[in-house]
Structures are given as C-alpha cells and as structure tokens.
Amino acid sequence: MNNRWNKWVYRWWSPVYDHFFNKGPFLKARQELFNDVDFHEGDKVLFVGVGTGADLEQISIDLLDITAIDYSEEMLAQAKKKFPTTSITFQQMDAQQLTFPDEAFDYVVASLILSVVPDSHKAFAEMVRVTRSKGQIIIFDKFATKPSLIKKLIRPVIKALGTDIGLSFEKIYEKHSGMKLTLIENRAVLFGGMYRKIKIRKN
Predict the structure, then answer these.
(1) Could you tell me the pTM of the whole model?
(2) Sign (positive/negative) of CA torsion 83, 89, 90, 95?
(3) N or C: which end of the chain has fewer CB within 10 A?
(4) Segments forming the whole domain that contains residue 55
(5) pLDDT per residue as tens digits for the range 190-200
C-alpha cells in the first residue's frame, strides 16, 4: 500500500463505503466505540481518517471542538455532505504527517485507519504526539489474531483493495511503549476478535 494507491482505491470506495462499513454489525461496533467515552463540552477531538463521517454520526458534535482529517478528498467530501452546517473543521491530510502542534487534542479517534496507511507506526506515533497529557486515543480497527496460512496467502490481495489484515496492534504498541502510554482497553467487538476497540491514555 502507498498513498497514491490508497487515493485511487478510496476514490472508488467513497460512494458505497457506508453500505458496507456503516450498517449492521459495523454500525453497532461504531456505537459501542463511544458508549463509555466521557466527552466534556469544549473538548478538542481529532478524527484521524474520518472517511465518510460514520463515527461523527455517533456523538454530540455540537458540544465538541472537532477536527476531522482524511487523505482521500472523495471520502472527505462524503463526510462534509453529512454535516454542511456544523463547526467541524474538515482537512485533507496524511495521518502519517499531521500538521498539528504537539498535545493539541483531548481525544484522538482512529477508526479503520491504522490498517490502511502505508506506515501504521508513523501514524500511531503522530496520534500520540498530538494527544494531550491525560488525553485518550480511541481506536477501532482490524488486527491479526492467530496467524494462518490462508491469511498469509491472501494478505497481499487484500492489501491491494486498500487494507491490511495482518497488522499486529501488540507490535505497534510495544514499539511505542516508551511514550508513557497506558492501555485502558483492548477488546474484541466484531467478527470473533478480528475487529477491536482499543483505548489508550497518554500519561
């Protein structure tokens, strides 16, 4: 995967994305992602890889100071259509090179983005960097559980469709464990544990 390829892939995904990833079990998982998040009025929240804005539909956006970024202009356009009169700041940006200053946000939300970007370690490090001390990173994504021959064989094919089914959250977290992070939650929410809800506090 690379940025140029992802742009092309998600140009085609953008009109139909919600039909696959914002209905049924995916919608239920997105709702569960926020059911215990204690947002306060005025909190600054960054949505990394906001896509079509599916997560934004699950929260009280009027109470928060929200910035939403995505690398795909077409996906971002779909999100803007849903929220034409809000104060949400939408920006086209690479999750691996965020242009925000350090410790700019109380919450960073990342749904189905670490498994999409070319370098998940860079993206995760950037998410940590822009999170304030005592702030939280909330992740909903697919991560590898037990390796299998079938998964290894089809992984390159699935990558060509714009996502990685072999990503290890444990390896990402371990590599960045020196960043003074606390893992609050790491729980299976969909498809037998393939998709997980993860909450991390920055100390």
Answers:
(1) 0.91
(2) negative
(3) C
(4) 3-202
(5) 988 889 999 99
